[in-house]
Design goal:
The structure is a homodimer of 277-residue chains. Chain A is α+β, with helices and mostly antiparallel strands. The longest helix of chain A has 16 residues. In chain A, 36% of the residues lie in helices and 31% in strands. Chain A has one domain: Ribosomal Protein S5, domain 2 (2-Layer Sandwich). Chains A and B meet through helix 2, helix 3 and strand 13 of A and helix 2, helix 3 and strand 13 of B.
Chain lengths: 277, 277
């Protein structure tokens, strides 16, 4: 949990299947509705008090505004060392995981005595204010297959979940800019996301989630050529797959991508949310 | 998750440190406020559709009303096979774990298509109506170190958490009847529990939780001789321990009981809530 001054936390990755944007002046009320899958592949964050704040990802210095905002909110000057196998900007919620992991680890390293809901709220607000995500943090704090019924931080947002466990495969062909998509015109996208949410809540099963996520990526006109080909190859061989929002990434249930001839990364649905290590 | 018709789920054990009783005619609104620790030691529940409902715990037939009520609510006739290392009636929330595990496994085995919040609500109501517990189910659905801020099922209750990870030890000297305690006069107990909750929310750390739990067991006059001796032995050797509500069980942080000369069972704080296996 904490050795001397340093502390380590883990936050799961999160791929969104569909979503709608909920804007609000208060970042605690802003966010997104939708649904996704949290992954055992995630981000491990070690926070060590130091004279200057510095953030490293897999050993390289990097500017992650969501993480530095969290440190500021906790009045913490520290070295943040994050390690992950997930690609950046490809729809896995790495910035959200870094915000959340930094919040949990810094709270322990600096003995700030905040509750988990407080830490999730801090990380959510930091991510919204940085413009890098809307719904990943609350999903990554929950684990499983989160349904974001109402947007926002704890106390505002409402979560449910699809009961599920098992293997997830993914292939990533590159990044998409979350801030460009959620900063642009999101009316059609949000209408499609709201429809998918109503449908999923009527029958919250994993195959139904994948079906609705595929429909959403088409309706929202976000489906990318290589991703579309991978998703189609999986469904044609009888599996379930969809595109990760927002990245050029296809993810599949079980051995879907392997059976369709791809060489995917493999992980599991992560039952737990972010936690101290 | 499910092989043919059968499905398996796991629910963590849960030891409550302090609580207050919230009665209500609607079982979804009834429950308890308080705080506790969920444990990697828990209950694995396998549900197989069959012609007659039968519940087994570690191979022996047993009548667990919370579990049979859950099956009824899901219109499921099944064999429920539960396995656990935890003692019964000793404050580990075994009946709550059986209700929750049965809900998750039966939903999968019978393809009932309920959401996780629905399943937690079913299990919570079954446990309240059976009179065997008030707050275990919502805590066991969350994982970690749950703070029950407001009582009741999802949609009514509010949860927070103490950020924590690590080893938990326990020794059990026998049972206490939950239904006798929560069915009796709980005014003084609830007043002590409400005070502890206010204090914990001001400084939600694990050592503070243990301190408040010790105070509660004294104030509520539930502290048992052998349990009191074990708790005192741990604190005198510099560790943190408390009594599990409601059972003749002492639980400790890290190696507290070992260092005090006991031969305890060992587990971990469980990061996740109940889940399909």
């Amino acid at each position: 949990m904490s050795d001397g001054d340093a502390a380590t936390a883990f936050a799961p990755g999160h791929v969104t299947g569909f979503f709608s944007v909920s804007r609000a002046d208060d970042p605690m009320r802003a966010g997104s509705r939708g649904a996704g899958v949290t992954l055992s592949a995630g981000v491990t964050v070690r926070v060590t008090p130091s004279d200057d704040t510095e953030v490293r990802l897999n050993g390289d210095r990097i500017d992650v505004e969501s993480a530095t905002r969290v440190l500021g909110a906790l009045d913490a000057t520290a070295t943040v060392e994050a390690e992950t196998n997930l690609p950046l900007g490809a729809g896995f919620g790495v910035s959200g995981a870094m915000a959340l992991g930094t919040a949990f680890a810094a709270n322990a390293a600096f003995a700030r005595g905040r509750s988990e809901n407080d830490l999730v709220s801090l990380a959510h607000a930091a991510e919204v204010e940085a413009g890098t995500g809307l719904g990943d943090v609350v999903a990554q704090a929950r684990g499983g297959v989160p349904i974001r019924v109402e947007p926002g931080a704890p106390g505002h947002g409402v979560l449910d979940g699809v009961p599920a466990a098992g293997r997830i495969e993914y292939v990533s062909f590159g990044g998409l800019s979350t801030s460009e998509v959620i900063g642009g015109d999101t009316e059609a996208l949000s209408a499609a996301g709201e429809r998918a949410l109503v449908d999923l809540r009527e029958r919250p099963t994993l195959p139904h989630f994948f079906e609705l996520a595929r429909e959403f990526s088409r309706d929202a006109e976000l489906l990318d050529g290589e991703v579309a080909a991978a998703v189609e190859a999986v469904t044609e061989s009888g599996g379930e797959a969809a595109m990760a929002m927002l990245g050029r990434t296809a993810f599949a249930l079980g051995t879907g991508l392997t059976e369709a001839g791809y060489d995917p990364e493999v992980c599991e649905i992560h039952a737990a949310g972010a936690t101290l290590r």
